[in-house]
Amino acid sequence: MNFVEELRWRGMIHDVMPGTEEQLLKEQTSGYLGIDPTADSLHIGHLVGVMMLKHFQRAGHTPIALVGGATGMIGDPSMKSAERNLLDEETLRHNQEAIKKQLAKFLDFESDIANRAVMVNNYDWMKDYSFLSFIRDIGKHITVNYMMAKDSVKKRLSGEASEGMSFTEFSYQLMQGYDFLHLYREHGCRLQMGGSDQWGNITTGTELIRRIAGGEAFALVCPLITKADGGKFGKTESGNVWLDSRYTSPYQFYQFWLNVSDADAEKYIKIFTALSKQEIESLVAEQQAAPHLRPLQKRLAEEITVMVHSREDYEMAVSASDILFGKSTSQALRSINETTFLQVFEGVPQFNIAKEQLSNGIKAVDLLTETAAVFPSKGEMRKTVQAGGVSLNKDKLEDFEAVIDTSYLIADKYILAQRGKKNYYLLIAL
């Protein structure tokens, strides 16, 4: 597989240094991508880089995931308008372990293949490097003029709201450049990948390798992902879409991808899945023929939810999604976990009821008019029941005087009432 060609048709190349493609076609090559460990989970903004590493390994090359324990203590000024908070070593170590578990779903770190993925932490080679040694060994090879010419520095210094840039941040590109030099020496690493905002830092590394080691190294960066409407990719009203289910549940994760626009779905399915060109072209044709069926969004959501979470989580997310569109059953409702259940019905009217009433049994008509005001009157409820328009837990209510007891409770706590096709009410037994 031609790695550069693979990324090119997927729309994943913003810039590539001359000679990169030739080097990768000539021999198995090690290449790295840096990941900032400021949280104990990756979010979907990281996934472009992770997919680059995945395709790199698929193409027969050795991917190196560098977790920036040292650089994470400083903070990359690229695309930032303010300096970030610095993290302590204990927090960084915890974050690194969590990130490795997530990366293992995309990369092969364990098998005995020749291009097994490698994970490194730049804190390991920076922690004992004295300041005097660093500025003597590395700093003297790169001029201030060279560093000032980088876009990441110029933007920070010329921004209207800028308060300037600390020396700590200014030194970031030298440290990242040294990472590349270190990996070139220790792992034979010849390529660094990243987002387009990293081009300046990466080329500082190739320059250090040329000046200090007399070697040749390469750079490849992907575009920053945006939405078709110009909005920021990966952000929702509640913030980032995380890979860790503690922060973003599989249901919410699945919903994010399911709800992207047609234009974004066509772009994202190339970037965030490993589906072949032929499969994607076939899905695009299906979408054009029947856009209301949304085959692109459905397949995108399936592929990426299974990859990040599991097939089981994906199936539960689909079951949960079906609940709102009338295709679900009482059994499916009871099969999803309580967290997902509450997320599906977030925002619907809720009524607290006494569990004791259910223990003794209560007529449906009394439950849905007097105890919980789902209907304004018994007469209206009778008419709606007769028209087949009332359901409890997705089962049609045939008799408005049916006795409702604790056997109706989902998770020993909830009853879902439905009036008509779209009006849901959550009864919570306390």
Please describe what this structure looks like:
The chain is of the alpha/beta class and 430 residues long. Helix content is 45%, strand content 14%. The protein is built from 21 helices and 15 strands. Helix 10 (172-187) crosses helix 11, helix 12 (250-258) crosses helix 16 and helix 13 (262-271) runs parallel beside helix 15 (295-308). It is elongated.
Give a nutshell description of this structure.
This protein is α/β, with parallel strands linked by helices and 430 residues long.
Number of helices: 21
Main beta-sheet strand count, sense and barrel state: 6 strands, mixed
Using DSSP, what is the number of strands?
15
What fraction, in percent, of the residue positions are helical?
40-55%
3D shape: elongated
Look at the helices and sheets and give the structural class.
Answer: alpha/beta
Distance between the termini: 60 Å
Give the C-alpha Rg.
27 Å
- Strands side by side in the biggest sheet: 1-6-5-2-3-4
Strand content: 5-15%
Q: What is the overall pLDDT average?
A: 89
Provide the low-confidence segments as ranges: none
Which descriptors apply to this entry?
430 residues, alpha/beta, 5-stranded mixed sheet, 45% helix
How are the SSEs ordered, and which strands pair?
Elements: H1 3-9, E1 15-16, H2 20-26, E2 30-35, H3 47-58, E3 62-67, H4 89-103, E4 118-121, H5 123-126, H6 131-137, H7 144-148, H8 151-158, H9 167-170, H10 172-187, E5 189-195, H11 199-213, E6 218-222, E7 235-236, E8 239-240, H12 250-258, H13 262-271, H14 277-289, H15 295-308, H16 311-323, H17 330-335, H18 338-344, E9 350-353, H19 355-360, E10 362-363, H20 364-371, H21 378-386, E11 390-392, E12 395-396, E13 403-404, E14 414-419, E15 423-429
Parallel strand pairs: 2-3, 2-5, 3-4, 5-6, 9-15
Antiparallel strand pairs: 1-6, 7-8, 10-13, 11-12, 11-14, 14-15
